[in-house]
Amino acid sequence: VGVYQELDAAPGQVWLFGARFRCSNVLDRPAVLRARFFDAQGKALSATATLRANPDIHEAGHWTEDTFLVRVPVGAVRLRAEVLNNVDGRIVVDDVFLAPIVEGETGALLVERAAAADFQGLAVWAKSPLERAFPDDLPGEAIEEIRMSAAGNDAEPFQLLLRSSEPMDGIQVKVVPPRGADGTVLDAVEVGVVGYVRINYPSAYIRDFVTPYWRTKLPHGRIGSDGWAGWWADPILPGDRLDLAADETRAVWLEIAVPAHTPAGVYEGRVDLVRDKRVLRSLPLRFQVYDFTLPETPTMKATYVPRFNEREMFGRETTEAEKQEAIWRYMARHKISPEMIRPQPRLYYDENGEPRLDFTEFDKAAERYFNELKFPSTWSPRDLFYLFGWGHPPREKNRRETLSGRTALRGSGPQPPAAGIQAEVSVGASPVLGAHEGEGMGRPGGHLHLGRAA
Prior knowledge:
Immunoglobulin-like; globular; 5-stranded antiparallel β-sheet; mainly beta; 3 domains; Jelly Rolls
């Protein structure tokens, strides 16, 4: 530590910590500023927050101001702001500052309507499905019809926004499925209402394995995203009814699936907004079907990480396998791959103490994953990936006392003494990177060997 200053602090407080600095001949991204926390007995807490230098930005000759937010964790009564100097190279620091922050909170948007006729009654407009709708979104250009398009073996969403100057309960969205000139009907229509989730802090990844899950967590460290506290659109709730509060925008989600080899052309339908048996708005729906069909296995790879292991998310009445099956089918319908195949290969030790991998259940899941649901890609098995410490020598917790010697990860250069597991990863054409020659999948390629280190 170069210099530091301590101040009284309280859990939940937020401080702005920053400085101007520049660097030269600096390797990696060394920490320049660090915040540490101490309890009433003077014991340092494990939580810290740091600001690191980036040689690509803070280059010599150019002063750069950088800041980060520090949130005081539970149990802390003192905050120590430190300027660090244990780096290779040269870092010059100036104008260090630390200031308390009063956090504001977004509230409802107030709109003066004395002469704003556009905000009276029910407003209906569209927004790209790639953009979130917020409760304070003001009406955009009114739409007179809904236009959608897709190829065969695809699905297309449409987001319809509603806002009213007066409360409107019990609005129902009725869809007349689009019909083609030859009588073909696109009847795979889904309607949902976009719900809002309260976000208290734009945290990104914040770990807290101590506080019980039913208690509010106090985040700490830097803001991890460009978002803000408030109500954010997130879940699409199945159903065709919604209640509109006065001066609050809600979104309706329409999705229409087009079967493979559907005849090309324009299909016509209708979307009605109905309340108390009265049609509030009727919008023609025109759906263009293109003259080609997308392949069963997508050629463009897109991956999303579903956290299906949280019981609170999907109900306690379903098993993990049932949750996975439901999510896999949903993602396959939208041509998005889950991050990995479960169950994972099972690592065990035989009677001679040799490490072995059992791919039996993994292969069954992979058969459904690739050959039935047609996912184009997957990550390497998670347990094997983390076994080797995220690209580093095996972590202490992954070692076995019965194995000793030197770890060798072939192809990654010399490694320091660690566990006695030797791994050789060979990646070929298989999408199961670093897995094995999955004969059951009919996909030659990657394999992984585990054995004693020499």
